[in-house]
Structures are given as C-alpha cells and as structure tokens.
Amino acid sequence: MPSTIPYDPALTLGNVVPQDKLANILQMAQLQAPADAAQANLNAMITLKRSIDMTIQEMMNVQITPDDLLAESVDIGKQIQKAATEYGKAKVKAETAIAPLRAKILGVSEEIESPIDYNKSALKQMPLSADTMEMNVQYFSYDENTESSASHAATIASFVSDSLSIFGDKFSGQASASAQSQVNSQHSRHSLSGTLVFCITCTHKTSQVFAPFILDVDKAVRAWNHLFPDKMINTNDPASIAKIEATAETKGEKSFSILSGATYGSSFVGMVHVLNTTKTSSSQSMESVASSMQAAFEVGGWFASETGAFGVNDSFSSSAKDLLSTQNIQSHCSAITMGIIPSIKSNEVRIGVQSFANFDPAKDMEQLANLQGATIGAQTTVASAADAARTGAQLLSLQNSKITAAISGLQAVDDGANKIIDTNSLMTAMDDYIQRCVSGGDNIGVPINYFLKPITQGMIARAWMAKYYPNKFNQAGSADDSQPAGSGSSSGSGSSSGS
Length: 499
Hints:
about 25% strand, alpha+beta
C-alpha cells in the first residue's frame, strides 16, 4: 500500500504544540522517505521503459532499425527489476519501523488551552505554497465466461420394448422413445474479478497563518505554569515578574511553541478487489415408465405417435426439474484519505442466474436419428412420409419441453439485489477528490509544513508587565502584532519559525 501523509489530530492550528507528538510524525515522515523515493524511482523507470518501447515501435514503422535503442530497452528492464526489489525491501522495512510509531497516535487527546487571543488575532489564507499532484494507478480486470452443455439419454427401452414386443418393432420403438429417461444438464460459469490500486498525493497553494498573532497574557501565564511547574510565574509578585523580564532572551531560556500557521496537502490511497463468481446448473429429468397395463399403454402410445407427440398422458409420466444457481460475491475495499473526505457511492449487484448455454445439438440430432431409424422403410410411401412428419413434430415437442422447463425454473430465482463497494465506487470517490482539490476551498488538506512560534518566559513577563504596569514598562511590539508599542494590549513578540 502506498504511503499516506503522517498526521496527528493533536496538532491543531493555534494550540500549544506537543513536542513529543510533533517529533513522532516527523520521525514517521523520515522513515517513509526512503520507501517513497524507491517507489518514485520505480515508477520513473517503468515510464521510461514504456516511452522507449513506443519510440522503438515508431522507428520500426518508418523502417529504421532501432538496434542500439533495443539494447537500452533491455538494460532498462534489468534496472526495473532491481528497482522493484529495492522498493519492496524499503517498503517492508519502513512499515515495520512505522508500526510502533503509528500506534502512538491517539484519536482523542487533551492539551492546555491555547494562549492566543482569538478575538484580536486573525487567521488569514495566503498562497504561500503551490498546487501539485502525483498519481499512480494500477488496474487489473479479468472477465471469464464459460458455458458447457451435456445431454445424454439413458434409455429404458429394454423395459418398454419387452412389454410391447408383441406389437412389433415399429410400435415398440416408438413407445421406447417416448418412455426414455432424458436428462439434460447445463453448466454455466461466469467469473469477473477486478483489482484497482491507486495513490494520489497533492499539495495545495493556500496556507493559513495567524496574522496578527495576539497573545492573551493571562492564558499564557496559565499555560506556562502548567507546562513548567518548576519555573512558575507568580502573578502575586510583580517584582519577580520584572526580574524574569530583565533576564529575557538569555542562553538556555525555556520556551513552548504555538502552531501559528501551516501549509497543506492531501492524499488519497485506495484499493478495491472484487470477485464475482456465478455458477448455474440446470437438470431436467423426465421419466416415463410403462405401467403394468399393457393395453392402456398401447393405446396411449399409439395416440401420441399418431399426433406427433412424445410419451403418453400425465398419469404415465413424471417430470422433475431441478434448477441450481449460486452466486459468490467478494469485495475487499480500503480507502485512506487525508485532508479531504470524498463522496463514496455503493453500486447495485443483481442476484440471478446466468443465461443458459444452448443444448448440445449433436445429441439432439442423435435422438432424431434414433427416431428416424425406428420409422424408416424400404420404400417411400404415404405412411412413411407421415412418419417423417411426425418425427419433425416430435423434435419440436422435445425442444419446447426443454425451454419450458428452463424458464419455469429461472423465474423463481432472479429476485434480488445487493449493494457493494466496487471499482466504480472508488472511481467516483477519486473523481470527487480531484474536483475538490481543483476547486480549492477553506477546509481541505492536512498540515505538511508547520509554522511554530516560540513563546518564552521573558516574552510572557514582558506582556504581563505591559498590561498591568504600563507606566513602569514600555512594551516593544512584535513584527506580526497589529497593536502599537505601549498600547497596553497583550501581544507576543518574536517571529514565526517553520519546521
């Protein structure tokens, strides 16, 4: 799986920066860098190989022999193999090292209240970065449809022929054909598998910065005392605060950082694998067994033969039709988005039976030949012509019975649908992600570069003295402070530093 942007929800714009959490995601980014570089190198080599192969084809089209370029293509192929191996090793190593760091990221955390005066400070959007996009998509689709038909006739002519042998070969043959057990089996298998893996990483030009950055001195004192209980600021002793201010900006002075601004990026990493396998099997069994009443069977068989039909009436035959259809749908989907939540849409998958394969015509012709063999005569007469006509009607009746049996079983199965996440769902989400990246907006992206503003004890002491003892101390305003020096409003000094 491609890498995503490391992000910890505890790093909120304007809040005090937990140094351990910031160090954690920076370490994750450092561990991801070799794997990302190896993947970029692999993609670049594959792109180069395809470009050279296309150039070779173009040279051959204009009848230019690309011998030297062919050698370069073979050499690049070897480099691709080496780059793929290096990428696999780097990715496994990075994921193994990142796993314990990712476990430290909590979905819920607590921090001291931000010392920013939100009523006086302003969060501005500035085009400090640039819009970029890197996309890598791999798609594999496999569609297979296999249909087979097997038709076999297991004749019980021995029973019928023995029962009707006294009426001669002609009638016994017709009766045995109508009483045979015919099993028509069909098997249909449709397998559709698709795998889509894609990774998109974007940077956005719009950055957010607190300008002006106004410090609320009372909240700053509380934050400092919470973070540094060994060097607390005692507001009941103005002399001690003045002493702290006098030693400001000395070597080794402690400080905490405020996240005063950030540039943003976003990423979309997704994978979906769908396997849809449908198996359909149709089996028709029509058994007609002669009863012990030979006279009634003779009359029924004679009537059916004269009318061009098969078998006798329903009292002498039974029809069992079995229809079995199974559909197996497997869908594995994962999506990790940072900075943007795209629209995810499910798709409907019908539950039903695949269309049946045609019955084997060779078997049908074989049955027809058997019927013709039972009625053929040495000379063509009016009676033989009538037999041939009846033979055609019998074949038509056979085919009609097959179609009726198949459709009657099919109607009771195709009656449902399921909603799943498939490749179309992920493509819809990707389109929505790209459109929102292009349109921009105020609420896209996660921080990829943090602007940190250090707040020292001397800075807080100076702001406190300026607020509560303005005549004893003349405050110097900071570069991003809209308040004039000595105005009495609390503000922080010092410029922003990025990391």
